[in-house]
Design goal:
Elements (H helix, E strand, L loop, with lengths): L12 H5 L9 E5 L12 H13 L3 E6 L2 H8 L3 H5 L4 E5 L10 E5 L1 H13 L8 H13 L4 H17 L13 E5 L4 H7 L5 E4 L2 E5 L6 H15 L8
Parallel strand pairs: 1-2, 2-3
Antiparallel strand pairs: 3-4, 5-7, 6-7
Length: about 240
């Protein structure tokens, strides 16, 4: 298994076709939204082209849809439009959809049968998991449209940080992630103030808005983060 560096986390058809290690029995994993690029969305036409290139090499396509509903709400495209282009799809319920735990795998009957076998071989069996399924069903009924609120709060956070002198790429804030250049000791200083960030990629931190982050939390973060990063607050004339 190896990663392919690509702008915005989106490998091009040319990259996929040129991969000498890819062939029959291989799998190309495409993530939407893409975590390390800051929650960026795959445009549907680019996703389709990448999937077609993978199949041209004899490989299957897996859609890592950990945040697929974020992509769907932000782009105004049904999640099925991406999912039908893949051979298998995972959806995570414990991220933006707000469940305490849980994910789902979708695919052909053959894929699901193999997944069941692998799950049991690796000790993944669960008894009485209907409680978790109930939470997932509730999330699908009540927590999809509200993802737009998370996206709006991420935009407010990004714009507030930019106004406060923190270098933020506003064009990269497409969903619920804000990527922030890391400075030494910033995580610890923010933790002391009750503001939690996490690693995004080398040299960058991520702020994530979700079900338990409200407007007041965002405003608090806008006040706390610049000082922790050592940013010089801008004064708008």
């Amino acid at each position: 298994m190896h990663g392919v560096p690509a702008p915005k986390g989106r490998p091009t058809p040319e990259q996929i076709l040129a991969d000498e290690d890819l062939g029959a029995g291989g799998v190309v994993v495409l993530e939407n939204t893409h975590r390390s690029s800051g929650g960026r969305i795959w445009p549907l036409d680019e996703f389709a082209a990448a999937a077609a290139a993978a199949r041209a090499r004899g490989a299957a396509v897996h859609l890592d849809g950990a945040r697929l509903f974020n992509a769907s709400v932000a782009a105004g495209i049904p999640p099925a439009d991406w999912a039908r282009l893949a051979d298998s799809v995972t959806i995570c319920f414990s991220k933006g959809l707000g469940c305490p735990v849980g994910a789902i795998l979708a695919g052909s009957e053959q894929v699901i049968e193999r997944a069941w076998e692998g799950k049991y071989l690796f000790g993944g069996a669960m008894r009485q998991s209907g409680v978790l399924a109930a939470a997932a069903l509730y999330a699908l009924d009540h927590h999809v449209d509200r993802l737009a609120d998370d996206h709006a709060r991420a935009r407010r956070l990004a714009e507030g940080l930019a106004d406060a002198g923190v270098p933020v790429d506003l064009d990269a804030v497409e969903t619920n992630f804000v990527s922030i250049a890391e400075t030494e000791g910033a995580l610890e200083r923010l933790r002391e103030q009750g503001v939690l960030l996490s690693d995004l990629r080398t040299g960058y931190l991520r702020a994530v808005t979700h079900l338990e982050v409200g407007d007041e939390d965002v405003e608090r973060a806008i006040d706390a983060i610049p000082a922790a990063l050592g940013a010089e607050r801008r004064v708008n004339a």
